[in-house]
Structure formats: C-alpha cells, structure tokens
Amino acid sequence: DADVTQTPRNRITKTGKRIMLECSQTKGHDRMYWYRQDPGLGLRLIYYSFDVKDINKGEISDGYSVSRQAQAKFSLSLESAIPNQTALYFCATSETRLAGTDTQYFGPGTRLTVL
Amino acid sequence: AQSVSQHNHHVILSEAASLELGCNYSYGGTVNLFWYVQYPGQHLQLLLKYFSGDPLVKGIKGFEAEFIKSKFSFNLRKPSVQWSDTAEYFCAVGRGGSQGNLIFGKGTKLSVKP
Fold first, then answer.
1. Rounded to whole angstroms, how far apart are CA atoms A110 and B15?
2. A2 has a chain B CB within 8 A of its CB
3. Residue B99 at interface with chain A, using a CB cutoff of 8 Å
4. Which residues does B42 contact at the CB level (< 8 Å), separation at least 6?
5. Which residue, A12, A73, A96, B109, could crosslink A69 as a Cys pair with Cβ 3.0–4.6 Å?
6. Over the stretch B71-84, which tens digit does the pLDDT of each residue have?
C-alpha cells in the first residue's frame, strides 16, 4: 500500500551497529505500529503509538526503541544490532473509531540482515 | 494472555480444491477478527474482517469466513482455490472497542498446484 512507506527496503549491517528504520504514512491515521516477522512465528508487535505523545511497548521491545516524530512518521531503532534481529520488519497504521478501530494497513516491509 | 492459533502450518492443494483454514482465539470478551494475506514478496493485505452482525463474512477474491462464538473460531474458506491464491494467511484478533492492538496467529502457508 503506497500510503504507508518504509525506508530502507533492504539493509545489511554488522553486529553492534546502530540502525534506524523509518515509516511514513499519508493515510492520516493516528495510530502506528512496528512488527517483526520471522518464519513460523508470524508477526510480533515491537512498539506501538496511539498518538505523538503516546508510545507503548509491545510483546518484544527489548533491544529496540522508537520515535514518533510527527503523526505521519514513526521510526524504529536498533541501538546495537545483533544477528537474531535479522527479520522482516513491518510498519502499520490504523485509525481510531468507535467501531472497527483495529483494521491495520501495512507498509511494504524492510528486510534487515545483521551479520 | 490472549492468543491466536492457526492449526495448519502449510497446506498444499490442487487448483479447484476447496479450502478451509482454521483459526481459534483465546479471549472471552468482544473481539474483532481479521484475516490478512501475504503474497510472496509482498506486504500484508486485509482479506476480510468481522466486527459485528452476520457471522458469515465475505471478503475479496471469493474468500469468506465464519465467526462461531461458541467455538472461539474464525475459519477462512474458499470453495475453489486458484494458483494465484498461493500465499501466507494470517488470522488476527483485536479486542472490542478501541484497543487498537492485534494479536496475530503464526500464519498458514498455502501452496496451490496448477
């Protein structure tokens, strides 16, 4: 979905390096999420943000940090990358409504390899 | 803790065969239910969703799912699969209201042989 973009799309880095993955959206949604996908494990939530001042840890936040620079931008950082952070990372957005609040729209993903 | 179980890791079918992928969840309150599809090399796309009303939900590309509250299930079905349905399918559950977060199952990979 072109409304949610992620950069870079692919990244190879070395153990110990700091990496930032960026997500931008033009959908006007207030909620943004970061997931990682590993084969056989599905999607696991790393962090989520319900608005610019509201950031929450997800299921697997250790080793990651995030920054919500604006409503449209949500960055994920790996402070010191390690090989088991090799995965496909997805950003997603959703909007707040009385009903149907949970439909999430995904970006194209960033494939990160940590050597 | 809330969880979502998808019974099959990998399903292999021939074209025109019928499909049913199982999904069960473990939350007793009001839920919102989703099926997402991920085609090879692509991101997740919404296939269908259930929030309330008719428990039989129709989605895109001929897919449908039935919410059976007593069984905590939301199985995905398609009467006749095509080679282009080859993808990974994810069931997801969100708590009712405005919680926002989804819990995803581990996914079922579907391979359709031409």
1. 32
2. no
3. yes
4. A108
5. A73
6. 999 999 999 999 99
Q: Do A42 and B32 touch (CB under 8 A)?
A: no
Q: How far is CA B53 from CA A40, B37, B93, in A?
A: 33, 23, 17
pLDDT digit string (tens) for A69-115? 999 999 999 999 999 999 999 999 987 654 445 678 999 999 999 99
β-pair partners for A76: A21, A66
pLDDT > 90? residue B39: yes
Alpha-carbon dihedral B59, B69, A92, A114, rounded to 10 degrees: -110
> pLDDT at residue A1 above 70?
no
Which residue in the set B44, B98, B105 is minimally distant from A96, CB to CB?
B98
Residues 68-97 on A with a CB inside 8 Å of B are: 90, 92, 94, 96-97
Nearest residue of chain B to residue A34 (CA atoms): B101
